[in-house]
Specification:
It contains 6 helices and 11 strands. The chain is α+β, with helices and mostly antiparallel strands. The N and C termini lie far apart (56 Å). Mean pLDDT is 79; it is low at 68-72, 74-79 and 81-88.
Length: 246
């Protein structure tokens, strides 16, 4: 990462609308530690990934994850689910999702952790600007999932607005529909994505469905897991409809 992608504690405080004292407290307890230390000056700087982590912590507060019972229950649920998924490889289900209002950025972008973090950080700022309440983050793949180029592809980075707000020029709706989904643990990569997508294609063919739009990676990122990306829980969602029969 180049030096122009690092931020001083003062810059982070302004970007994330958070006090320097709170950032120092997060550093002290090991929740969010500045990513880079200048060897000459000893100054410490935050990365784009750190900014995203800060936003996730803030959004957990907005979503009222302040009850100890709620946080404990959610932590145990994710821990149990994560362990189960590692044993089962993936969990495949057919689901129906309602309309989802999103704020997004679509373009030809590289596919990877660092470029994703930059885009999601920008999107959190846009959500703040319209006074929205951010939910989970997602990536929509507007190209063939098996053949897309990870160096440059037609990608749409999204944040779900929860609850939905008024429609604006900055938002759009992913319409209600059926999706075949696969839930799994770990950071998505080229091999794992194609392997899991292949499982879904097999299910689609065997059960009389056809694809009906762009595939989605839905990241279930919880504060208890955000410092361990290898334990992220990801849901791959492929829109489907019943195949026409003669």
């Amino acid at each position: 990462m180049s030096l122009d992608q690092y931020y001083s504690i003062g810059q982070v405080a302004r970007i994330c609308s958070i006090s320097i004292q709170t950032l120092r407290y997060y550093d002290k307890i090991g929740l969010i530690i500045p990513n880079y230390t200048d060897k000459l000056t000893g100054y410490r700087y935050y990365s784009n990934r750190d900014l995203l982590y800060i936003k996730i912590v803030q959004d957990m507060k907005v979503l009222h994850f302040t009850s100890i019972e709620q946080r404990t229950a959610r932590f145990l649920m994710l821990q149990e689910l994560g362990g189960g998924l590692k044993d089962l490889d993936v969990l495949v289900e057919l689901k129906r999702f309602p309309d989802r209002q999103i704020i997004s950025d679509r373009g030809r972008y590289a596919c990877g952790m660092e470029p994703s973090i930059v885009k999601f950080t920008e999107l959190f700022s846009r959500v703040d600007a319209i006074g929205g309440n951010p939910g989970h983050i997602m990536t929509i793949y507007h190209e063939n999932f098996m053949t897309f180029d990870r160096m440059e592809s037609d990608l749409e980075y999204c944040i779900i607005l929860n609850p939905a707000g008024p429609d604006t020029v900055d938002t759009r709706i992913i319409p209600e529909g059926d999706y075949i989904t696969a839930l799994y643990c770990g950071i998505p990569n080229d091999i794992s994505c194609k392997r899991i997508y292949s499982k879904l294609l097999q299910w689609i063919e065997e059960n009389g469905y056809v694809e009906n739009g762009a595939s989605i990676e839905h990241y279930i990122v919880d504060m208890t897991q955000m410092m361990k990306p290898e334990e992220f829980i990801v849901e791959l969602q492929v829109p489907v409809i019943k195949a026409l029969t003669l």
